[in-house]
Every structure is written in structure tokens, then in C-alpha cells.
Amino acid sequence: MGKYNIDKLLSELGVDGPSTPEPPAQEMQGARPDRWRSRTQADQARRYDEQQGPPDEQEIDLDAQMQAQMQAEMQAEMHAQMQGDIQVYQEDPDDAQDTGVASIYIPDEGASTASEQRLAAELVKAGAITQAQLTNAQKVLSKTPGLSLIETLIDQGADETPIQQVIARAAGLPFGRIDLEKGLDGGFDENLVQRLGVEFCKHHLVVPLRTEGSRVVIGATRTDDVFLLDEIRHRLRVAGIKLVIVTASDVRAALEIVSHDETDNEQINAILAEVDEGDVEIEKSSEDEVDLEREAAESPIIRYVNYIIQHAVKEGASDIHIEPAEKKLKVRYRIDGVLFEAMNPPIKWAAAITSRLKIMANLDISERRLPQDGRIRCVVQGRKLDLRMSTLPNAHGEKTVMRILDTRSINVQLEDLGFDAATLEIWQNQIKAPHGIVLVTGPTGSGKTTTLYASLRQLDKSKLNISTVEDPIEYHLDGITQTQMHEKIGMGFARALKALLRQDPDVIMLGEIRDTETATIAIQAALTGHLVLSTLHTNDAPASITRLINIGIEPFLVGAAVNGVLAQRLVRRLCQHCKKQQKPTEEMAEFLEMQGIAPDKAWTAEGCDRCRSTGYSGRVGLYEQLTIDDQVRDIVARNPNVAEFRRLCIERGMVSLRADGMRKVSEGLTSVQEVLRVTEATV
Ligand SMILES: [Zn+2]
Question: How far, in Å, from the CA of 570 to the mean position of ligand 1?
């Protein structure tokens, strides 16, 4: 193994190792995984390096800015304020800065004391607090480290408004008051508050005030939380945010208005009543499809549910999770295999949203204690969609999960799945063979169905009788007879397969080989002149062969019937807009060299607006292809053990999943982290 230590490397990368094939849900709220945070911090530091020099210089700049601007402008502003001149969030007209993350002053933790001292001096100088107030606060702070100076001052009775004005000025940001009298009618934006989540706003003391073009104006009490801004941008899905510094008391008062908005409650009740009626119409309509856009007019709940679905489609999500928790309703999307929290509608909407979805899926809205499943057919932005929906009661209500079945996404060609040219050619030969078994293997969610459908689509349907037995039928394929399996009524894979064989088939696609009986019939079919495509649930290609032997098929029959096995995984594709080539750590460099990759050739994920700051967009397959030729057939007939067989296959030139992954790393398609996440080290 040499010096290089895989465990250490994995933990450095924040990868749990190959024992966890499913990526962890990325909780985008509150405490983020360290991996994410540290990357963003590193990113931040780099931006300083590139744009503004190290943080120290930045502070010095700010000092200069503070001194130059403050003395001249502060007095005028204070004066104006005394005249009662201040309008609702008065802003400098020339203050058009984008408040991009890098343009805000962010003290790092070590420097916070120094910057607080500077701020304290400015507060006294500007007359926002007295020296006595400062001395008192500092006493408290010296005994309870961790408190912030501002909070302490305000706790002790200092006036918040002049303090926030000084803070705003120091950061070069406008200060303003929230117009509480106007409240929901123009004082701030309730819809945006709901999209951020009331709890979120309360916790971080922020309130969206209004939209200005493509930007959202956010009232915030702090200038130094860069993660918060990223999070807000992510939640609101806007490109730009403009900050206005406000007082914490204004924020609390505004959020109080939202929480206690009584008309809201009445509205919800009205909606619930309405939903009961509206759905009957939908169900009885001759068209089974619900046009989301046409429907969108009436109620906020209907509109909101449509919004959840439309947004998921727009983001390219594969699944929508709607999950009531104790205090909030979480809506999460699975995008490229990873869950993201997308929005937090008010918890009191939970039942109404679930009811609306049940109505759309033709489920029983009164049944809340038993799980249910159904289908929603709808049209979103002109695209026909199938949502496979299921509900499950949990401690706080019912969790709803919808899988988005989109014919467009399954309509991919084999050429677009990430095969290298040689593998693709071999695979195409195998699926065009006149007889034999061709297997695709991998865990759930590794894209097996997509590969099989893309393969079937390449066959000549006019000359071949192609049939499938599936559980369930995910998509309708033109020119192909698809049969749904019904285990409950005795229509298992084995029985369906027997029936198919009496239908003069050429090519049979069998959803999965799960048991000895199915395997036996599949082998017989393959040996009697049919091509059988199927899947198995094994980790790698050689293990599929030993699995068939282990469930009771004679080794020589396995060798004779199987033409080839393709093991596959999906990894996230690096975002083409922000991927970077970075100097790797010494250990990483050593690892890359061991994998045969020049260390400076590896690409890493960065994160930008186009990829929701993840650094990834879309997915690509990793493939391990085992071709059963005469020599391998002889080995199989001797019933080898898994490890030995795998070693022999690799010696004979089989490219392992990890090796294929590493090749894709060097091509800049994905990152080392992604490959390590889904593959195991191999001999
Ligand atoms: Zn990107």
C-alpha cells in the first residue's frame, strides 16, 4: 500500500467510502456539512487572494473607506434623520453595488475582536453609544466570550438605530427602516418571506423587502454572514441580492405580522373547502391530464403545489419530497442523485398540500394513517409528465414523495451515457447478438433501466419481436410489447417469461433476475435462440456470474448462456462553467499517480450560480464491461470464487468501475471524490 492511506484520504475528502452507495442528503439549512462549508471558506479565501488581497488588506481598505466616507457622510445622514427625513429604507442612489459575496466585508474568526474594537470606536465616535455603555458591554463580553458586541449593547439598552447606521456605513451598505405600517401591503414581501421560511427569517433576522429587477432586496441586521447570503440566494433562486441594513426590532415586528396574519388562516380554510370541490372536477374530466398552468388561477394552495412541481421540472429534479417536520414543512428535490432543500412553505399548509396532491393522484384524501400510492399525469410547460406518488404517515403528518417520470429524460441515446468508444462498440455488438444473455448490474439508482431502454431503442423493431416484462413499466416504448408484472396475482417474472416464450420472441427484456426459477428460464431462452436482456443486483460484473452459479445454475450453463455483463454507476458530472484544475495535496497527488493520472490533470468541483453552488450538473455513467469469450467461459465452467474470478478478469484487460471513473476524472468529466464515493478499490 505504500505511504498512501485510503482511509485518511477518504476522510479528508469527506467521503464515507464505498459502503454508502447513496449520497447523503445535503441539508442546505442551518448546520451544513463541513465539507460544503470548508469548500466555501476556501473559495472565499481564494477570492480574496484573487480580487482583493488577503483579508488584512481588505480591512485596511475598509478602514480607509470608513474614515473617508464616514466623517463626510455620517453627519449629513444623522442630521437628515433628525429632521425626520429618512424614508423607508433610504438608500444611496449611487450604491448600486451588487453585494456579491466577495464584496462584503467578512471578518474571519481570529480577526473578529480587532474588527469589533474598531467598530466599537466608530460607534462611540459617531455618538451611537456612549463610552460608558461601551465599557459596560466590554465587561460583560470579557466574562462571556462568544457574545457579540452589538447584541450585548442592545441588551443593555443602547439604541439600535444609530448602531445599525454605523454598521451599514462601515460596510458601505445602505440603512433603512422597514415600513411596518404598510406591512404586507408594500412594507416587505410576504411571498418571499414564505419562500425563505418564517423560521429561517426569524433565526437569521432577515426579511425580503422587495424585488428589483432580477435582484431581491434583503433587510438584514448583519453584514458579515457570507453563508447566509449564499443560502438566501439558493432558497430564493435569484442571481443577485441587495442588502439593506435594518434593525432587529423591525425584523421581529415584520415577522410577527406574517405569523399573526389572521386573514391567512381564513384563506387556508377557504382553500381547503375549495380543494374538496375542485378535485372532483379534475377526476371526472374525460382527459386524465391536469394542465397545471391552466388550473393555476384559483387558490394559493393549488398554485403553490403547481409551483413545487413546475420548479422541480425546471431544476431537472428526479424526485420531490414533501415532508412535514415539527415546525416546518420541507420541500426537497433530488437533483443528480442528491437531495436539496428547495423551499419551506408554512407548516399549516401541510395538510392542504398533501390533500391537493392526493386529489391529483386520485387517492383517498380522508385516509391519513395508511400509506398510499398513485400516479399524477400532468402537463408542465408543454411537457407531458408522469409523477409516481406515494404517501407515508410520519410523526408530524404525511410525507409525500413523487418520482418524476419524464419521457424526455429516458429518451437518451446510448452514445450520450458516457461510454468510451471501445466499450460502446462491444456493448452494441452484444445487444445485437442473435442469442444469449446480456446483463446490466449495479445498485438501485445506478441507471440500469436507462441503459436497457436506450439499448432496446437501438434494435430494429420492424424486423424483431421485442418484448419486456417489467416491474413497474417505467416508460412506454414504441414498437415494443411491454408486460407489467403482478406478483400478487401470481404473475411473477418466471410466469411472464414462460408466456412470452410462446409468443415467438426475438429479444426479451426482463426487469430483473431475482430467483432461481427466473434464472433457469432465462438461461433456457438464451440457449434456445433468444436474446435476453436483464439486470442483476450485484456490485460488479464478475460477481454477476458467480451470483448466477450461487443461486443454482450449473457453471457450464452460465458460461454457455451469458454473452457479457455491464456493471455501472452514476457519478455527478462536473459543472462545465466552474470546474477547476487545482494543485492537489501531496497525498492526493500520490493517489492520482497510482491511478495513472498526472496530478495536474485532475479537475475539482467549485460551485457557481449555474450548479446551485454544488460544482456539479447532470450525471455520467461509469462502466465495467466483462465480455464472456471462450477463455472466460472455461474459467466460469470451473466455478471460480468471486475474488479469484475478478482478479482474472482484470488481468485479462477488464477496465474496473474505478479505473473507468479515474479515466473520466482525467477527462474533466467528474471529480475524484465522486468516483471514490461510488466505487470500491479493486485488485
Ligand atoms: Zn458551476
Answer: 19
As a whole number, the mean pLDDT across the chain is 79
Map grid coordinates 433587510 to a residue: 219
Give pLDDT tens digits for 486-545.
888 888 889 999 999 999 999 999 999 989 999 999 999 999 999 999 999 999 999 999
Q: How far is the CA of 415 from the centre of ligand 1 (A)?
A: 24
Dmax over Cα atoms in the chain, in whole Å?
A: 96
CA-to-CA dists, residue 617 to 4, 231, 335, 503, angstroms = 31, 19, 9, 43
The pLDDT of residue 325 is above 80? yes
Which tens digit of pLDDT belongs to each residue from 360-381?
Answer: 898 988 888 999 999 888 887 7
Q: How many CB atoms are located within 10 Å of the residue 283 CB?
A: 12
Distance 457 CA to ligand 1 centre (A): 32
The SS3 of residue 190 is: helix
For residue 430, report the distance from its CA to the centre of ligand 1, in Å: 37
- Report CA(400)–ligand 1 centroid distance (Å): 30
* 188 CB-side CA count, 13 A: 32
CA 668 / ligand 1 centre spacing (Å): 13
- What is the distance in A from the centroid of ligand 1 to the CA of 576? 7
pLDDT at 144: 75
Reported pTM: 0.58
Buried b (16+ CB within 10 A) or exposed e, 430-466: bbeeebbbbbbbbeeebbbbbbbbbbbbebeeeebeb
- How far CA 434 is from CA of 8, 92, 448, 521, in Å, comes to 49, 76, 22, 17
Rounded to the nearest angstrom, the distance between the alpha carbon of 56 and the centre of ligand 1 is 29
Ligand 1 centroid distance, CA of 574 (Å): 8
The length of the chain is 683
C-alpha cell at 148: 457579540
Q: What is the pLDDT of residue 583?
A: 83
Distance from the alpha carbon of residue 583 to the mean position of ligand 1, in angstroms: 19
Single-letter amino acid code for the residue at 662: M
Q: Residue 401 carries which side chain, given as an amino acid letter?
A: V
**For the chain, what is the radius of gyration of the CA atoms?**
30
d(CA 39, CA 611): 15
If DSSP codes are grouped into helix, strand and coil, which group holds residue 492?
coil
The SS3 assignment for 354 reads helix
| Ligand 1 geometric centre to CA of 604 (Å) | 11
Q: What is the pLDDT of residue 682?
A: 59
- Stretch among 13-27, 339-353, 587-601 having the lowest mean pLDDT: 13-27
pLDDT at 6: 55
